[in-house]
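Page 37, top half.
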Amino acid sequence: MATPVWTGATDGNVGTAANYSPAAAPAAGDEFRINGTSTRDLDTNMAALTAVTVDKCGVHATAGMKIGAAGTPFDISATRLYYAGRGAWAYFTGTYANVICATQKKDVSSFNVAGTITILDAKQGWCGVTNGAALTTAHVTHQGARQTDVILYVGTSVTGFTTANVNGGVLDLNSSLTTLNNTGGKTILRAGTLTTANISAGAVEFRGGTITTANVYDGAVLDTGPSGDILTLTTINMFEGSVIRLRRGVIFGSAITLNWRGQPRVLDIDESIAVTLNLN
């Protein structure tokens, strides 16, 4: 296993051997590093390493260069992709068993990944899953302030999304998801179908799409957004101490079944919204 380091000694071409130290482009099984020893952007011949799967691809916190672009991401696969860089943007595509985002930048497009991702760990900064990617599991955690430290943006038409575990920061969801476990921070659902939302702490803000079943526990919040949103919500299981707000002007496509499992702390449902209440 080699450990090539990006230098950009010649130019921004990722296929040029002279742009690495030692002078050889990353090969299968390598541990590829991008750090602050170079300021050269990786911006040319982005598909040169399409067939390569390295063991690790790591972008260090000192790395300030741009990587790829929105239409031409850096195409390289890795067992583990770690990004903590501070460049204006970074775009990757490939097949990844594990992606870790820990950038200190919170600008939109700070870090973007496409292709096929098995597990994504969003720890810090702005992390984006590009429209049309395949994602299985996401963990949204935090390394600093719980509410604001990380934003994971999941774009439209992302497929295969089975599980999201959110315990800090924000999950901005624009595709379908099977199971959400919200134990802190906030999830914003804008589009797609969320089959089961387990909200045990923090909040889920319902702005669009469908929630099939929401389980809202002590201290947790289920809230709708501004007037005019068109939503579908089938069943709410409301537990002791929960907070439910379904606001005036929000349009629901069908009646909501509300299963009363315990005394809520706040139950604010506008009279215009059709609800079937079951006392348990």
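Page 37, bottom half:
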Amino acid sequence: MKHFFLLSSLFFWVVIAAAQEPTMPEAKDSLPDTPYEEPFPSEKFDVPAPPPPAEIQEAPEPPEPDTPLHRYVPAYRKPFSLKEDLLSHTAIGFYNLSGGNSKYYFMGSYNFELGFKIAHYINKKNSLRFNYALLWQFNSLSIKNNQHFVVNNNETLLASYANDTSVSKLRMHNLVLPLHIEFNLYPNSNMHYYNYRDRIKLGIGVYGSLSLDSSQKMKYSEDNVHYKSVTRKDLGINQLSWGGSAYLGYKDVAVYVRYAVMPLFANGGSQYPFSFGIQF
């Protein structure tokens, strides 16, 4: 009896569990036969073609200032420019003293200049220009006949050296400020501004110089031994000097000449420095 009751209970719970198990839906073999329809008609998205890009036009140049200065003074149409009006200056040439040709070598005496210059326009016909410059100048005076400069009783003289010299030179460093009025020999009234190049130019003016340093260089031999001596003494050279200057050239090259109206030495006789050469 007991075993029958247990088997009946087990059978009852198996029936209940089978009744509660979910049934899987049958899979369909094919999709529905409804035709495909576009959700949105393509006619609604017809967009007109974009217009061609517009041509890029350059901005017009600003009008030229209409003032009396610009109308009647063509030279002032071009403003000052450091790139074009601040110019470099280089010069090399011969240097000597007037009245002392027999005492100094001509070919062995020279000068060299290096600096910059600034130019300004003067008139409306583009024919005048004012130039000024700041230059470093080196002068070398070669002395003949085994001589050198000495100071005797506050007077600068040439005296013989104790040994036979192969080189005897007086070297000077100066600071030079030249001022020139420059003429354009073939001005062009149709030019909008002063054309510094491509022309023949003539400059006339003055210059002032300040002595910075001076020394004597000598090379000599004694007992088959070669020596070089450089001495810096006060030889009575004028610290300030001035004179006339002129040049004639084409484009950036010119031939220049300078003559001092003050002697080289304060108490050394009438020996006036002069130089000439090429500048560019």
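Margin note: The CA atoms of residues 163 and 207 lie 39 Å apart.
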